[in-house]
Amino acid sequence: MVKISRLLPALAVAVALAVPAAQAKDWKKVVIATEGAYAPYNMHAPDGKLIGFEIDLALDVCKRVNLTCEFVAQDWNGIIPGLNAGKYDAIMSGMSITAKRLEVIDFTRPYSNSPTTFAVMKESPLAAMPDSGVRVSLDDKAAMDKAIKDLAPALKGKVIGVQVSTIQADLLNTYFKGVTEIRTYPTTEEHDLDLQAGRVDAALASTSYFASTLSKPGGDQMKLSGPLFTGGLLGKGTGIGLRKSDADLKALLDKGLNEALADGTIKTLSLKWFKVDISPPS
Amino acid sequence: MDFAFLIDTMQKLLAGVPLTLELTFVSVAIGAALAVLLAVLRASFLPCEWLVRAYVFVLRGTPLLLQIFLIYYGIGQFAEVRNSFLWPFLRQPYWCAILALSLNTAAYGAEIIRGGLLAVPQGAAEAARVSGMSGFLLYRRIILPLAIRQALPAYGNELVIMVKSTSLASIVTLMEVSGISYAIISETYRALEVFLCAGSIYLVINFLLTRAIAQAEAWLNPHLRPATS
């Protein structure tokens, strides 16, 4: 019943908006769909309200461009068809901008780009890897070559755990094959278990994921180490999903996001929710 | 049918065959030795029948998947284990998988061999005793050969199942045939073709294995061979 009661306002709004959205370019109110189950991007508070990084960011951006924004919870499956069917106007749900999604919907500029980095045990010799905390873009060949050269002696012969078929696994296979032993796991939780058991020397995942790992029991024994990788095969980050026909809304939200990025709001919110800065490059 | 994709997939999967075979043979070798020991212990006068019963009950009554998980992720949680002499082995997914597969097949094997031992005719053992054989000699010359002959068809089943059981080793990061097929599927989303290729590899391995078991059966049953002129 909860789901239906949540969907009803969404449907009502969709009906109300379907007509004006099609004709007028005068956006006043935007309904944003989110999953509500992807902490800390978005989640339900104990009282049922939606909270999280994306909710805070949307409220800030909407104020900047004089929009009234309202969130609805929507299952991840079907979140894109729902947008194109006009049930809501935007998606903010930790959704990465990928070529496949760009075939069916449009995206604003990225508002977060969680870098990829290593997690190790605190007492491990890898606890202070070279270039720790330094952002390295895979698009910058010189910086990447230097980072690999710096890391190679430390990582030589070590075992790195990574989730199978992720952008992080791609990164290891592309840049560190032959230097380290790469062990692939079905889920990220399993490489965390093996990191704690000492079977792998480091795990590679996104910093936003590790933020939740480090706050779990046993997480205080772990720390992040090594460069913060972005760009290249790691993609552009997460953006607000929009219908392809709403170029005017995209322009508005891009403007708001650019301002929020420029004055450090995204960084502040990121530190609040993730404990690390995952704001995208401007 | 995309034959280029099938050929490419087949090549990637074949790279996992040595590991699949290795897991099978090493764990069957260890498991068979353990199974004979358990079966003999249970049949012997030593008061350890309940111990063997308990072992078989637990290992046969729980899923192999859980046993692999418990041995790999469970045991590693204890600092005592991580600091012990066993850790160089238990640290590696390979030996954890071998341990789980061996212990599991030993439980089934022990029951199969017990059945074989029970099927040895009393008269054969009595005749051997009358001829002055006893103890180890009696087992080696008379009881075990007859018991193995009786048990082989059932044990052949267990061997075939073991080949397929190695596919569970992929959950502890071992990239045998199934592990590689999961990785290919999560990249290509083409489950049908990849699983068909993986399935046909297991089919070929088990075809060769069942032929070998049939040969062994014929060799152990000279009295059933057609007379040659």
UniProtKB/TrEMBL annotation, chain A:
Domain of life: Bacteria
Protein's cellular compartments: Cell envelope
Pfam families per record: SBP_bac_3 (PF00497)
SMART domains per the UniProt record, alphabetical: PBPb
Signal peptide start-end: 1-24
Database matches in SUPFAM superfamilies: Periplasmic binding protein-like II (SSF53850)
Keyword Iron-sulfur assigned: no
Gene3D superfamilies xref list: Periplasmic binding protein-like II
Domain Solute-binding protein family 3/N-terminal intervals: 29-277
Record key words, sorted: Signal
Entry GO terms, CC: cell envelope
Chief site of localization: other
Annotated family: Belongs to the bacterial solute-binding protein 3 family.
Protein's name in the database: Transporter substrate-binding domain-containing protein
Species whose genome carries this gene: Limobrevibacterium gyesilva
From TrEMBL, chain B:
GO cellular component: ATP-binding cassette (ABC) transporter complex
Localization of this protein: Cell inner membrane; Cell membrane
InterPro entries: AA_ABC_transptr_permease_3TM, ArtM/GltK/GlnP/TcyL/YhdX-like, MetI-like, MetI-like_sf
Main location: membrane
Gene Ontology biological-process annotations: amino acid transport
SUPFAM superfamilies, sorted: MetI-like
Domain named ABC transmembrane type-1: residues: 17-213
CDD domains in the record: TM_PBP2
Membrane topology classification: Multi-pass membrane protein
Spans through the membrane: 20-40, 52-72, 168-185, 191-209
Pfam families in the record: BPD_transp_1
UniProt keywords, alphabetically: Cell inner membrane, Cell membrane, Membrane, Transmembrane, Transmembrane helix, Transport
UniProt-recorded Gene Ontology molecular function terms: transmembrane transporter activity
Annotated signal sequence range: none
Family listed: Belongs to the binding-protein-dependent transport system permease family. HisMQ subfamily.
Stored NCBIfam families: HEQRo_perm_3TM
Protein known as: ABC transporter permease
